[in-house]
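Internal ticket #5521
Category: modeling
Description: The requester needs a full-assembly model to guide mutagenesis choices. All entity lines are attached below as received. Residue total reported by intake: 427.
Assigned to: D.W.
Attached entities:
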Amino acid sequence: MLARELLREQNERVQELLETRGTPSELATNWLTLDRNRRDLLAEIEALRRRRNEASKEIGQLKKAGEDAGAPIAAMAEIKSSIAKIESSVSQADADLRELELQLPNLPHESVPRGADATANRLERTIGEPPVFDFEPKAHWDLGPELGILDFERGAKIAGARFTAYFGLGAQLERALINFMLDLHTAEHGYREVLPPFIVNSNSLVGTAQLPKFGEDLFKLEGTDYYLIPTAEVPVTNVHREEILDEAVFPVRYVACTPCFRAEAGSYGKDVRGLIRQHQFNKVELVQLSLPDSSYEALEELTGHAEEVLKQLELPYRVVCLSTGDMGFGAAKTYDLEVWLPGQNAYREISSCSNYEAFQARRASIRYRPSEGGKPRFAHTLNGSALAVGRTLVAILENYQQEDGSVVVPEALRSYMRGVESITVET
RNA sequence: GGAGGGGUGGCAGAGUGGUCGAAUGCACUGGUCUUGAAAACCAGCGUCGGUUCACGCCGACCGCGGGUUCGAAUCCCGCCCCCUCCGCCA
Protein backbone atom coordinates (compact mmCIF):
# COMPACT_ATOMS: atom_id res chain seq x y z
CA MET A 1 0.00 0.00 0.00
CA LEU A 2 1.02 3.55 -0.57
CA ALA A 3 1.14 6.12 2.18
CA ARG A 4 -2.09 8.09 2.45
CA GLU A 5 -0.26 11.35 3.10
CA LEU A 6 1.55 10.86 -0.18
CA LEU A 7 -1.63 10.16 -2.13
CA ARG A 8 -3.28 13.19 -0.56
CA GLU A 9 -0.49 15.69 -0.82
CA GLN A 10 1.28 14.63 -4.00
CA ASN A 11 -1.49 13.04 -5.94
CA GLU A 12 -0.32 14.27 -9.33
CA ARG A 13 3.17 12.97 -8.83
CA VAL A 14 1.80 9.61 -7.69
CA GLN A 15 -0.39 9.48 -10.76
CA GLU A 16 2.51 10.17 -13.05
CA LEU A 17 4.64 7.48 -11.41
CA LEU A 18 1.81 4.96 -11.54
CA GLU A 19 1.46 5.59 -15.25
CA THR A 20 5.07 4.55 -15.78
CA ARG A 21 3.94 1.16 -14.50
CA GLY A 22 0.94 0.95 -16.77
CA THR A 23 -1.60 1.71 -14.07
CA PRO A 24 -4.61 3.70 -15.31
CA SER A 25 -4.19 7.27 -14.18
CA GLU A 26 -7.71 7.76 -12.88
CA LEU A 27 -7.03 5.43 -9.96
CA ALA A 28 -5.10 8.07 -8.06
CA THR A 29 -7.80 10.69 -8.63
CA ASN A 30 -10.50 8.20 -7.70
CA TRP A 31 -8.62 7.68 -4.49
CA LEU A 32 -8.84 11.38 -3.67
CA THR A 33 -12.62 11.30 -4.04
CA LEU A 34 -13.02 8.22 -1.86
CA ASP A 35 -10.69 9.64 0.77
CA ARG A 36 -12.56 12.95 0.90
CA ASN A 37 -15.85 11.11 1.18
CA ARG A 38 -14.58 8.92 3.97
CA ARG A 39 -13.21 11.81 5.97
CA ASP A 40 -16.44 13.76 5.65
CA LEU A 41 -18.42 10.79 6.91
CA LEU A 42 -15.97 10.29 9.75
CA ALA A 43 -16.36 13.87 10.93
CA GLU A 44 -20.11 13.42 10.87
CA ILE A 45 -20.24 10.18 12.79
CA GLU A 46 -17.63 11.21 15.31
CA ALA A 47 -19.65 14.29 16.18
CA LEU A 48 -22.69 12.09 16.76
CA ARG A 49 -20.73 9.62 18.84
CA ARG A 50 -19.48 12.45 20.93
CA ARG A 51 -23.04 13.53 21.65
CA ARG A 52 -23.94 9.98 22.51
CA ASN A 53 -21.01 9.64 24.87
CA GLU A 54 -21.85 12.89 26.62
CA ALA A 55 -25.52 12.01 26.96
CA SER A 56 -24.92 8.57 28.39
CA LYS A 57 -22.46 9.97 30.86
CA GLU A 58 -25.14 12.38 31.97
CA ILE A 59 -27.68 9.57 32.25
CA GLY A 60 -25.28 7.64 34.38
CA GLN A 61 -24.84 10.54 36.75
CA LEU A 62 -28.58 11.17 37.01
CA LYS A 63 -29.23 7.53 37.79
CA LYS A 64 -26.52 7.44 40.36
CA ALA A 65 -28.07 10.48 42.01
CA GLY A 66 -31.41 8.70 41.95
CA GLU A 67 -32.99 11.22 39.63
CA ASP A 68 -35.20 10.67 36.62
CA ALA A 69 -33.29 10.08 33.37
CA GLY A 70 -36.32 9.57 31.16
CA ALA A 71 -35.90 12.73 29.10
CA PRO A 72 -32.26 12.28 28.03
CA ILE A 73 -32.89 8.61 27.31
CA ALA A 74 -35.73 9.53 25.03
CA ALA A 75 -33.57 12.13 23.30
CA MET A 76 -30.94 9.48 22.72
CA ALA A 77 -33.21 7.53 20.40
CA GLU A 78 -32.74 10.08 17.65
CA ILE A 79 -28.94 10.13 17.98
CA LYS A 80 -28.91 6.38 17.93
CA SER A 81 -30.78 6.09 14.69
CA SER A 82 -28.58 8.73 13.03
CA ILE A 83 -25.47 6.87 14.08
CA ALA A 84 -26.82 3.59 12.78
CA LYS A 85 -27.60 5.21 9.44
CA ILE A 86 -24.20 6.79 8.95
CA GLU A 87 -22.28 3.84 10.34
CA SER A 88 -23.02 1.70 7.33
CA SER A 89 -21.90 4.51 5.01
CA VAL A 90 -18.67 4.79 6.95
CA SER A 91 -17.87 1.12 6.75
CA GLN A 92 -18.74 1.14 3.07
CA ALA A 93 -16.41 4.10 2.54
CA ASP A 94 -13.65 2.32 4.45
CA ALA A 95 -14.08 -0.81 2.38
CA ASP A 96 -14.12 1.12 -0.90
CA LEU A 97 -10.98 3.01 0.01
CA ARG A 98 -9.13 -0.08 1.10
CA GLU A 99 -10.18 -2.01 -1.96
CA LEU A 100 -8.74 0.66 -4.19
CA GLU A 101 -5.57 0.99 -2.12
CA LEU A 102 -4.92 -2.73 -2.43
CA GLN A 103 -5.07 -2.34 -6.22
CA LEU A 104 -2.40 0.35 -6.38
CA PRO A 105 1.11 -0.92 -7.14
CA ASN A 106 4.21 0.46 -5.50
CA LEU A 107 5.93 3.53 -6.87
CA PRO A 108 9.22 2.95 -8.67
CA HIS A 109 12.44 4.27 -7.17
CA GLU A 110 14.01 7.13 -9.07
CA SER A 111 16.90 4.95 -10.20
CA VAL A 112 14.58 2.53 -12.03
CA PRO A 113 14.59 2.86 -15.81
CA ARG A 114 11.26 4.00 -17.18
CA GLY A 115 9.66 1.91 -19.86
CA ALA A 116 6.64 -0.17 -20.72
CA ASP A 117 8.23 -3.63 -20.73
CA ALA A 118 11.38 -5.74 -20.56
CA THR A 119 12.94 -3.99 -23.54
CA ALA A 120 13.52 -1.01 -21.26
CA ASN A 121 15.40 -3.06 -18.67
CA ARG A 122 18.91 -1.87 -17.93
CA LEU A 123 21.87 -4.24 -18.08
CA GLU A 124 23.96 -3.64 -14.97
CA ARG A 125 26.84 -6.09 -15.41
CA THR A 126 27.78 -9.39 -16.96
CA ILE A 127 29.87 -11.83 -14.98
CA GLY A 128 31.69 -14.83 -16.39
CA GLU A 129 32.01 -16.09 -19.93
CA PRO A 130 29.54 -18.47 -21.57
CA PRO A 131 31.37 -21.78 -22.04
CA VAL A 132 32.56 -22.69 -25.50
CA PHE A 133 31.67 -26.21 -26.65
CA ASP A 134 33.25 -28.10 -29.50
CA PHE A 135 30.01 -30.02 -29.84
CA GLU A 136 26.37 -29.04 -29.96
CA PRO A 137 25.30 -28.47 -26.36
CA LYS A 138 22.04 -30.09 -25.34
CA ALA A 139 19.14 -28.64 -23.45
CA HIS A 140 18.50 -30.02 -19.97
CA TRP A 141 15.23 -31.59 -21.11
CA ASP A 142 17.35 -33.95 -23.21
CA LEU A 143 20.30 -34.29 -20.83
CA GLY A 144 18.21 -35.02 -17.74
CA PRO A 145 16.15 -37.90 -19.14
CA GLU A 146 19.19 -39.35 -20.93
CA LEU A 147 21.09 -39.45 -17.66
CA GLY A 148 18.05 -40.92 -15.96
CA ILE A 149 17.95 -38.14 -13.35
CA LEU A 150 14.92 -36.17 -14.52
CA ASP A 151 11.65 -37.82 -15.52
CA PHE A 152 9.12 -35.45 -17.03
CA GLU A 153 6.77 -38.16 -18.24
CA ARG A 154 6.41 -39.83 -14.91
CA GLY A 155 6.02 -36.42 -13.25
CA ALA A 156 3.13 -35.79 -15.60
CA LYS A 157 1.65 -39.20 -14.90
CA ILE A 158 1.83 -38.81 -11.14
CA ALA A 159 0.53 -35.25 -11.02
CA GLY A 160 0.18 -33.59 -14.40
CA ALA A 161 1.88 -31.22 -16.79
CA ARG A 162 4.60 -29.06 -15.25
CA PHE A 163 5.53 -31.55 -12.57
CA THR A 164 8.80 -33.46 -12.64
CA ALA A 165 10.26 -36.39 -10.73
CA TYR A 166 13.98 -36.37 -9.92
CA PHE A 167 15.90 -39.59 -9.45
CA GLY A 168 19.27 -40.68 -8.12
CA LEU A 169 22.04 -38.14 -8.56
CA GLY A 170 19.50 -35.64 -9.88
CA ALA A 171 17.63 -35.70 -6.60
CA GLN A 172 20.96 -35.60 -4.76
CA LEU A 173 22.16 -32.66 -6.79
CA GLU A 174 19.01 -30.72 -5.89
CA ARG A 175 19.56 -31.53 -2.23
CA ALA A 176 23.25 -30.64 -2.46
CA LEU A 177 22.37 -27.27 -3.97
CA ILE A 178 19.92 -26.54 -1.18
CA ASN A 179 22.45 -27.33 1.53
CA PHE A 180 25.20 -25.46 -0.25
CA MET A 181 23.09 -22.33 -0.56
CA LEU A 182 21.74 -22.45 3.00
CA ASP A 183 25.22 -22.98 4.40
CA LEU A 184 26.59 -20.09 2.40
CA HIS A 185 23.94 -17.63 3.52
CA THR A 186 23.89 -18.69 7.15
CA ALA A 187 27.64 -19.10 7.64
CA GLU A 188 28.99 -16.35 5.37
CA HIS A 189 26.21 -13.80 4.87
CA GLY A 190 24.66 -13.55 8.33
CA TYR A 191 21.17 -14.89 7.67
CA ARG A 192 19.14 -16.84 10.19
CA GLU A 193 17.61 -20.01 8.80
CA VAL A 194 13.84 -20.34 8.99
CA LEU A 195 11.69 -23.35 8.22
CA PRO A 196 8.23 -21.82 7.88
CA PRO A 197 4.83 -23.35 7.14
CA PHE A 198 4.35 -24.12 3.44
CA ILE A 199 0.70 -23.24 3.77
CA VAL A 200 -0.45 -19.75 4.67
CA ASN A 201 -3.72 -17.94 5.26
CA SER A 202 -5.11 -15.12 3.15
CA ASN A 203 -4.00 -12.42 5.59
CA SER A 204 -0.40 -13.35 4.98
CA LEU A 205 -0.91 -13.20 1.23
CA VAL A 206 -2.48 -9.77 1.48
CA GLY A 207 0.47 -8.71 3.61
CA THR A 208 3.01 -9.49 0.92
CA ALA A 209 0.64 -8.37 -1.87
CA GLN A 210 -0.09 -11.62 -3.71
CA LEU A 211 -3.73 -11.01 -2.79
CA PRO A 212 -6.20 -9.64 -3.67
CA LYS A 213 -4.92 -9.11 -7.20
CA PHE A 214 -3.09 -12.30 -8.07
CA GLY A 215 -5.21 -15.08 -6.60
CA GLU A 216 -5.35 -16.95 -9.89
CA ASP A 217 -1.61 -17.69 -9.63
CA LEU A 218 -2.11 -19.51 -6.33
CA PHE A 219 -3.15 -23.00 -5.33
CA LYS A 220 -5.95 -22.70 -2.82
CA LEU A 221 -7.00 -25.58 -0.60
CA GLU A 222 -10.64 -26.20 -1.25
CA GLY A 223 -13.08 -25.19 1.44
CA THR A 224 -10.44 -23.47 3.59
CA ASP A 225 -8.62 -20.18 3.89
CA TYR A 226 -5.34 -22.00 3.19
CA TYR A 227 -3.06 -21.52 0.22
CA LEU A 228 0.13 -23.29 -0.84
CA ILE A 229 2.93 -20.75 -0.70
CA PRO A 230 4.11 -19.38 -4.06
CA THR A 231 7.43 -18.38 -2.47
CA ALA A 232 9.02 -18.37 0.99
CA GLU A 233 8.77 -14.60 0.84
CA VAL A 234 5.16 -14.95 2.02
CA PRO A 235 5.58 -16.89 5.27
CA VAL A 236 8.96 -15.39 6.11
CA THR A 237 8.03 -11.74 5.58
CA ASN A 238 4.86 -12.36 7.58
CA VAL A 239 6.87 -13.66 10.54
CA HIS A 240 6.77 -10.11 11.90
CA ARG A 241 3.32 -9.10 10.67
CA GLU A 242 1.49 -6.89 13.18
CA GLU A 243 4.58 -6.47 15.32
CA ILE A 244 6.52 -3.49 16.58
CA LEU A 245 10.21 -4.35 16.66
CA ASP A 246 13.07 -2.71 18.50
CA GLU A 247 15.29 -0.68 16.22
CA ALA A 248 18.24 -2.58 17.67
CA VAL A 249 17.23 -5.85 15.94
CA PHE A 250 17.83 -4.42 12.46
CA PRO A 251 18.77 -5.50 9.93
CA VAL A 252 16.72 -8.69 10.22
CA ARG A 253 18.01 -11.31 7.81
CA TYR A 254 16.26 -14.61 7.18
CA VAL A 255 16.95 -17.39 4.74
CA ALA A 256 14.52 -20.19 4.01
CA CYS A 257 14.34 -23.04 1.57
CA THR A 258 10.83 -24.06 0.69
CA PRO A 259 8.97 -25.62 -2.14
CA CYS A 260 7.02 -23.04 -4.11
CA PHE A 261 3.67 -23.74 -5.71
CA ARG A 262 2.39 -21.73 -8.61
CA ALA A 263 -0.80 -22.27 -10.53
CA GLU A 264 0.31 -19.77 -13.21
CA ALA A 265 -3.09 -19.81 -14.85
CA GLY A 266 -2.80 -18.58 -18.39
CA SER A 267 0.91 -19.17 -18.74
CA TYR A 268 0.48 -22.25 -20.93
CA GLY A 269 2.39 -22.13 -24.14
CA LYS A 270 5.37 -20.44 -22.51
CA ASP A 271 8.35 -22.54 -21.47
CA VAL A 272 6.43 -25.74 -21.99
CA ARG A 273 9.54 -27.91 -22.00
CA GLY A 274 11.77 -28.82 -19.14
CA LEU A 275 12.17 -27.54 -15.62
CA ILE A 276 11.98 -23.82 -16.22
CA ARG A 277 8.32 -23.32 -15.44
CA GLN A 278 6.87 -25.78 -12.96
CA HIS A 279 3.89 -25.89 -10.62
CA GLN A 280 6.25 -26.94 -7.83
CA PHE A 281 9.89 -26.02 -7.36
CA ASN A 282 12.36 -25.45 -4.57
CA LYS A 283 13.75 -22.05 -3.87
CA VAL A 284 16.18 -20.62 -1.34
CA GLU A 285 14.88 -17.20 -0.43
CA LEU A 286 16.56 -14.31 1.35
CA VAL A 287 14.34 -11.91 3.26
CA GLN A 288 15.49 -8.75 5.00
CA LEU A 289 13.76 -6.20 7.16
CA SER A 290 15.65 -2.97 6.90
CA LEU A 291 15.52 0.51 8.33
CA PRO A 292 14.21 2.93 5.70
CA ASP A 293 17.49 4.82 5.43
CA SER A 294 19.51 1.78 4.51
CA SER A 295 17.17 -0.32 2.40
CA TYR A 296 18.85 0.48 -0.90
CA GLU A 297 22.24 -0.48 0.47
CA ALA A 298 20.55 -3.63 1.71
CA LEU A 299 19.24 -4.33 -1.79
CA GLU A 300 22.73 -4.14 -3.27
CA GLU A 301 24.03 -6.35 -0.50
CA LEU A 302 21.24 -8.91 -0.86
CA THR A 303 21.68 -9.03 -4.61
CA GLY A 304 25.38 -9.62 -4.00
CA HIS A 305 24.54 -12.53 -1.72
CA ALA A 306 22.51 -14.12 -4.48
CA GLU A 307 25.28 -13.46 -7.01
CA GLU A 308 27.78 -15.16 -4.73
CA VAL A 309 25.98 -18.46 -5.26
CA LEU A 310 26.45 -18.18 -9.02
CA LYS A 311 30.06 -17.11 -8.60
CA GLN A 312 30.91 -20.06 -6.40
CA LEU A 313 29.19 -22.41 -8.80
CA GLU A 314 31.11 -20.72 -11.61
CA LEU A 315 28.01 -20.10 -13.68
CA PRO A 316 28.02 -17.16 -16.11
CA TYR A 317 25.28 -14.63 -15.49
CA ARG A 318 24.24 -11.06 -15.85
CA VAL A 319 22.38 -8.58 -13.68
CA VAL A 320 19.47 -6.61 -15.04
CA CYS A 321 17.57 -3.75 -13.44
CA LEU A 322 13.91 -4.16 -14.31
CA SER A 323 12.10 -1.22 -15.88
CA THR A 324 9.04 0.41 -14.38
CA GLY A 325 6.78 -1.60 -16.66
CA ASP A 326 8.46 -4.96 -16.06
CA MET A 327 8.65 -4.84 -12.26
CA GLY A 328 6.40 -6.82 -9.99
CA PHE A 329 3.40 -5.19 -8.34
CA GLY A 330 4.89 -4.42 -4.93
CA ALA A 331 8.50 -3.70 -5.83
CA ALA A 332 10.11 -0.27 -5.83
CA LYS A 333 13.25 -1.63 -7.46
CA THR A 334 14.20 -5.08 -8.74
CA TYR A 335 17.36 -6.70 -9.97
CA ASP A 336 16.99 -9.94 -11.89
CA LEU A 337 19.91 -12.34 -12.10
CA GLU A 338 19.93 -14.16 -15.39
CA VAL A 339 22.04 -17.25 -15.81
CA TRP A 340 23.46 -18.40 -19.12
CA LEU A 341 21.80 -21.54 -20.52
CA PRO A 342 23.81 -23.01 -23.41
CA GLY A 343 21.01 -25.39 -24.38
CA GLN A 344 18.78 -22.42 -25.07
CA ASN A 345 21.51 -20.05 -26.07
CA ALA A 346 20.05 -17.40 -23.80
CA TYR A 347 20.21 -15.81 -20.37
CA ARG A 348 17.29 -16.90 -18.21
CA GLU A 349 16.01 -15.51 -14.93
CA ILE A 350 17.27 -17.43 -11.92
CA SER A 351 16.77 -14.83 -9.19
CA SER A 352 14.78 -11.71 -8.56
CA CYS A 353 15.88 -9.35 -5.79
CA SER A 354 13.59 -6.51 -4.77
CA ASN A 355 13.22 -3.67 -2.36
CA TYR A 356 9.57 -3.18 -1.44
CA GLU A 357 10.31 -0.16 0.72
CA ALA A 358 7.31 0.20 3.08
CA PHE A 359 4.79 -1.24 0.62
CA GLN A 360 4.49 -4.66 2.23
CA ALA A 361 5.22 -3.34 5.71
CA ARG A 362 2.22 -1.04 5.47
CA ARG A 363 -0.05 -3.88 4.39
CA ALA A 364 1.33 -6.27 6.97
CA SER A 365 1.91 -3.64 9.66
CA ILE A 366 5.56 -4.41 10.25
CA ARG A 367 6.92 -1.56 12.32
CA TYR A 368 9.79 -0.61 14.57
CA ARG A 369 10.20 1.84 17.40
CA PRO A 370 13.03 4.28 16.74
CA SER A 371 15.69 4.04 19.43
CA GLU A 372 15.51 7.78 20.01
CA GLY A 373 11.83 7.27 20.85
CA GLY A 374 8.73 8.49 19.10
CA LYS A 375 6.06 6.87 17.03
CA PRO A 376 6.49 3.46 15.48
CA ARG A 377 7.58 3.61 11.85
CA PHE A 378 7.20 1.15 9.02
CA ALA A 379 10.19 -1.02 8.24
CA HIS A 380 11.34 -1.68 4.70
CA THR A 381 11.13 -5.22 3.38
CA LEU A 382 13.34 -6.88 0.79
CA ASN A 383 13.60 -10.32 -0.65
CA GLY A 384 15.42 -12.22 -3.32
CA SER A 385 15.92 -15.73 -4.58
CA ALA A 386 19.33 -17.13 -3.81
CA LEU A 387 18.58 -19.08 -5.81
CA ALA A 388 15.75 -20.86 -7.57
CA VAL A 389 17.07 -24.38 -7.05
CA GLY A 390 15.51 -26.14 -10.03
CA ARG A 391 16.75 -23.51 -12.43
CA THR A 392 20.20 -23.69 -10.86
CA LEU A 393 20.20 -27.41 -11.49
CA VAL A 394 19.24 -26.70 -15.11
CA ALA A 395 22.14 -24.26 -15.40
CA ILE A 396 24.58 -26.80 -14.02
CA LEU A 397 23.40 -29.54 -16.37
CA GLU A 398 23.65 -27.30 -19.40
CA ASN A 399 26.88 -25.45 -18.56
CA TYR A 400 28.80 -28.43 -17.21
CA GLN A 401 27.77 -30.95 -19.83
CA GLN A 402 30.42 -32.99 -21.64
CA GLU A 403 30.47 -34.36 -25.13
CA ASP A 404 29.72 -37.88 -23.84
CA GLY A 405 26.51 -36.69 -22.19
CA SER A 406 27.89 -36.69 -18.66
CA VAL A 407 27.82 -33.65 -16.40
CA VAL A 408 30.74 -32.50 -14.25
CA VAL A 409 29.78 -31.54 -10.70
CA PRO A 410 30.97 -28.01 -9.84
CA GLU A 411 33.84 -28.00 -7.33
CA ALA A 412 31.83 -26.14 -4.74
CA LEU A 413 29.21 -28.88 -4.64
CA ARG A 414 31.39 -31.95 -4.45
CA SER A 415 31.56 -32.08 -0.70
CA TYR A 416 27.78 -31.92 -0.68
CA MET A 417 27.67 -34.80 -3.21
CA ARG A 418 29.79 -37.21 -1.14
CA GLY A 419 32.66 -36.57 -3.49
CA VAL A 420 30.85 -37.36 -6.73
CA GLU A 421 32.69 -35.50 -9.50
CA SER A 422 30.61 -36.38 -12.48
CA ILE A 423 27.07 -37.45 -13.24
CA THR A 424 26.93 -40.25 -15.76
CA VAL A 425 24.24 -42.62 -16.90
CA GLU A 426 23.36 -44.75 -13.90
CA THR A 427 23.49 -48.44 -14.40
C1' G B 1 -12.32 -35.00 16.95
C1' G B 2 -14.42 -34.75 22.48
C1' A B 3 -14.41 -32.21 27.50
C1' G B 4 -12.78 -28.13 30.37
C1' G B 5 -10.02 -23.40 31.03
C1' G B 6 -8.33 -18.91 28.82
C1' G B 7 -7.18 -14.59 25.19
C1' U B 8 -6.73 -7.13 28.66
C1' G B 9 -1.06 -2.03 27.23
C1' G B 10 6.42 -4.19 25.68
C1' C B 11 5.77 -8.21 29.64
C1' A B 12 3.17 -9.96 34.08
C1' G B 13 -1.60 -9.24 35.92
C1' A B 14 -6.42 -6.73 38.26
C1' G B 15 -10.98 -5.42 36.51
C1' U B 16 -18.23 -9.07 35.71
C1' G B 17 -22.92 -2.96 33.11
C1' G B 18 -21.79 3.82 34.21
C1' U B 19 -15.72 9.43 34.63
C1' C B 20 -12.24 2.23 32.64
C1' G B 21 -8.13 3.46 27.76
C1' A B 22 -8.31 0.52 31.85
C1' A B 23 -5.46 -0.68 39.00
C1' U B 24 -0.80 -2.65 40.41
C1' G B 25 4.11 -4.62 39.45
C1' C B 26 8.20 -5.14 36.00
C1' A B 27 10.58 -2.96 31.87
C1' C B 28 11.53 1.79 29.55
C1' U B 29 12.38 7.50 29.49
C1' G B 30 13.37 12.09 32.19
C1' G B 31 14.39 14.26 37.00
C1' U B 32 16.00 14.47 42.43
C1' C B 33 19.79 12.33 45.41
C1' U B 34 25.21 10.38 44.60
C1' U B 35 32.32 11.52 43.21
C1' G B 36 30.01 7.74 39.83
C1' A B 37 26.69 3.72 39.79
C1' A B 38 22.96 1.08 42.37
C1' A B 39 18.95 1.76 45.64
C1' A B 40 15.15 5.12 46.98
C1' C B 41 11.81 8.96 45.62
C1' C B 42 9.08 12.12 41.85
C1' A B 43 7.17 12.46 36.93
C1' G B 44 6.21 10.46 32.14
C1' C B 45 5.21 6.21 29.28
C1' G B 46 -0.31 2.06 24.20
C1' U B 47 -2.06 1.91 18.94
C1' C B 48 -4.86 3.79 14.89
C1' G B 49 -7.85 7.56 12.71
C1' G B 50 -9.99 12.66 12.29
C1' U B 51 -9.14 17.80 13.24
C1' U B 52 -5.74 22.05 14.38
C1' C B 53 -0.32 26.65 12.20
C1' A B 54 0.30 24.90 17.08
C1' C B 55 -0.96 23.68 22.42
C1' G B 56 -4.63 20.57 22.08
C1' C B 57 -9.46 18.54 21.13
C1' C B 58 -12.49 14.48 19.32
C1' G B 59 -13.42 9.34 17.86
C1' A B 60 -12.20 4.11 17.78
C1' C B 61 -9.61 -0.05 19.84
C1' C B 62 -9.44 -4.96 26.07
C1' G B 63 -8.50 -11.96 20.11
C1' C B 64 -12.11 -11.04 15.54
C1' G B 65 -17.25 -10.15 13.87
C1' G B 66 -22.30 -9.43 15.17
C1' G B 67 -26.19 -8.50 19.05
C1' U B 68 -28.63 -6.63 23.77
C1' U B 69 -28.56 -1.69 26.39
C1' C B 70 -29.43 5.26 27.16
C1' G B 71 -24.38 3.14 28.15
C1' A B 72 -20.31 -3.07 27.11
C1' A B 73 -13.41 -4.96 28.62
C1' U B 74 -17.71 -6.66 31.61
C1' C B 75 -24.05 -9.71 29.28
C1' C B 76 -25.64 -12.85 24.63
C1' C B 77 -24.42 -15.32 19.69
C1' G B 78 -20.82 -16.88 15.89
C1' C B 79 -15.70 -17.45 14.53
C1' C B 80 -10.27 -17.66 15.36
C1' C B 81 -6.20 -18.77 18.48
C1' C B 82 -3.74 -20.67 23.02
C1' C B 83 -3.49 -24.06 27.40
C1' U B 84 -4.92 -28.82 30.14
C1' C B 85 -7.00 -33.74 29.83
C1' C B 86 -8.93 -37.72 26.56
C1' G B 87 -8.91 -39.84 21.61
C1' C B 88 -6.11 -40.29 17.04
C1' C B 89 -1.59 -39.92 14.40
C1' A B 90 4.14 -39.20 11.99
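Resolution: model delivered.
Comment from assignee: The radius of gyration of chain A is 27 Å.
Ticket closed.
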